[in-house]
Amino acid sequence: RFYGASAVQDTLHIQVAEPLSQRHAAVTEMLITLAWPLAILMPPCFFGTWVFVRYSLRHVLAFNEAIKARDGGDLSPIAGHDLPVEINTIAESLNDLLQRLRRALELEHAFTANSAHELRTPIATALAQVQRLKQTLPEGSNKEQTRKIEMSIQRLSRLSEKLMELAKAEGGSLLTAEPHDLISLLRLIVEQFRRSCPNAVIRLNVTDKQSYMSNMDADAFAILVQNLLDNAIKHGDQNEPVDVLFSAQGGLSIINHADVIPAETLSQLRRRFVRSTSQVEGSGLGLAIADAIVTGIGATMTIHSPAIGRPDGFEVSIDFSKI
Fold first, then answer.
1. Whole-angstrom Cα distance, residue 73 to residue 220?
2. Rounded distance, CA 316 to CA 304, Å?
3. What is the domain extent for residue 253?
4. Domain termination site, one of 119, 143, 167
5. Are residues 107 and 218 in the same domain?
6. What is the CB-side half-sphere exposure of residue 67 using CA atoms within 13 A?
7. How far is Cα 5 from Cα 20, in angstroms, rounded to an integer?
8. Are residues 178 and 314 in the same domain?
9. Within this chain, do residues 192 and 284 fall inside the same structural domain, yes or no?
10. Which of 83, 138, 223, 278 is the most buried (most CB within 10 A)?
């Protein structure tokens, strides 16, 4: 690079030359001089900024964790202490939404439970009257019609009981402070089913000394197992046994022999009034009740068709170890 200048009425000329290598060396030295302080100061600055932001947002992060920790059945207000003014309005709106949703669900559960409860007496009365009428009628078309009416009322009675169980599963207290031995309860439920369904073969695969303590409500566990066993017996092969297993790790499995259910139908069976087939009498609420109870206690339920390790069958597995 060259620089020239003239002086004394252009009688003197001065010209200076600078090597580019020297200029580059000066620029490099300047960059190095500026870079090393930045390299030393930037990491602490970034870390300090991160710590300051985290500390400033600690209440927002705690509020976020409280939301994440909620399960589907807990609709109580979320505490939001010392939140920034901008976030506090969102927390208040969220709690108002949870309160309205909880009130709506409580009204729905109360309506279902009250309706089913109020229907029990008139249904029982109507059934008794029809049965008395059937005894007085001679054999013929009228008596056959009376039998059909009796069967319809019995189906309505079972549906009413299922609705009451569903209301308890979705709105009742499913956990208790005092633990219960689920395997002892399971033995009693299976024995009851053997007496009420003498033609059904139920194989209970637990040892005499085996036990599993859990805080699950005993009535809720009974409703859960009764619905699963009822489904397994109704929809299974009547000439094959229903297997009931309870592992030491808290896993309950109920397996029957039945035709394989298509995957698209299997994925819908947890919904209310969905049935795998219309050839078997039922309300379509059994798995919906079981799923509501399992969700309410924080356990997990998986269904398989065909059953694991079998070419056919239907298997329901529940893991109580996560309660």
1. 15
2. 7
3. 173-319
4. 167
5. no
6. 12
7. 20
8. yes
9. yes
10. 223
- Locate all alpha helices (DSSP H) within 137-174, ordered by sequence: 141-171
pLDDT at site 220: 87
Helices within 181-242 (DSSP H only): 182-196, 218-235
Question: Which strand ranges, in their side-by-side order, compose the sheet holding 202-205?
Answer: 202-205, 242-246, 251-256, 314-319, 300-304
Q: Which residue has the higher pLDDT, 104 or 202?
A: 202
Strands 202-205 and 251-256: unpaired
The per-residue pLDDT for 172 is: 62
180 and 313 together in one domain: yes
Residues 109 and 158 in one domain: yes
Which tokens hold the place of 32? 């190095």
**Cβ-contact 270, 285 below 8 angstroms:** no
Alpha carbon distance 185, 177 (integer Å): 17
CB-based contact 187:206 (threshold 8 Å): yes
179 phi/psi in degrees, rounded to 5 = -75, 155
In 3D space, the residue among 52, 50, 32, 29 whose CA is nearest the CA of residue 40 turns out to be: 32
pLDDT of 180 higher than 80 = yes
